[in-house]
Design brief:
Layout (H helix, E strand, L loop, with lengths): L30 H6 L6 H29 L1 E4 L3 E4 L4 H4 L7 E5 L2 E2 L6 H6 L6 E7 L2 E7 L2 E6 L5 E6 L2 E3 L3 E4 L3 H28 L10 H14 L1 H19 L7 H14 L5 H30 L2 H10 L1
Antiparallel strand pairs: 1-10, 2-9, 3-4, 3-5, 5-6, 7-8
Helix pairs in contact: 2-5, 2-7, 2-8, 5-7, 6-7
Length: about 325
Amino acid sequence: KIGKTEYVLSLIPLGGYVKLLGEVENEKLSEEDEKMSFSKQPVWKRIMIVFAGPFFNFLLAVLIFVFVYIYGVPTLSSVVGEVQKDSAAYQAGILQGDKIVSIDSHKIVYWDDIKPLIIDSQGKELEIVVDRGGQVKQTIIKPRLSKTKNIFGEEVSAYLIGISPSDNVITEKRNLWEASIMGLQRTWQFSKLTIVVFVKMLKGDVSPRNLGGPIFIAQAAGAVAKEGIVPFLFLMALLSVNLAIINLFPIPILDGGHIMFNIIELIRRKPLSLKWQGILQQIGFVFLIMLMIFVVMVDIERMNLKFVNEIVKYFK
């Protein structure tokens, strides 16, 4: 116990949780403790308390990324591995093995530096400088609007020049300031991606079978861990972001549900009745249980276990 807070390390560490003062059923409180209880706090303070959980999930992801970028991330270099025939790059004289040094005076070090400059060009001519066997060559390329596929397998239009990277990998290291910026950027990017995935699932553009449960996560973590500490930490950061986003969904029982109740109270100037809160929490609980069963069944299907698959099919 530190101050007025008790800290407990459980025998089976299934995750962190808090029991707020006054939230334990049949708990008897003194008059002084009653004033300090969660339900007696102003609405804004209750929202901040509930938001603290997802916030620290985001913070953990940022800190992981900061550590990773200081430690060093294996990243594709700017060396061209393949040039598509009759592409804009092919016609401009770009060759396999060329190292792209700059695009429109923007310094290029990593392959990831190239893509945004090409896509955001809107088809205007770009001045590209390459290192070819120690000799500096300069050329002009006009990106073409082409059909390609995004990470969801959807066909989209984007400006491309028709090159792909080589297998040449270099270690990307950043100082503390740069790593902090990268940590915030990567956390924001993963957050947006997570939200987009769920929106696409609701619209039917992405199959819910892409969801992964505890079995899939354990398998993925094991497989990624074999690739090294950096991929493993990237996965942990992604899971932390996913957990934060999911926790903020306005589903009763989740943190987002509690925030929703408090916002409703803020608007109505009075809380929802305990009866309605109880009903909505039961609905939220049933929904989460059904979702958990679904993702576990999908995980089992991925494992391709014949006997268990028969059971899964039976329940379907």
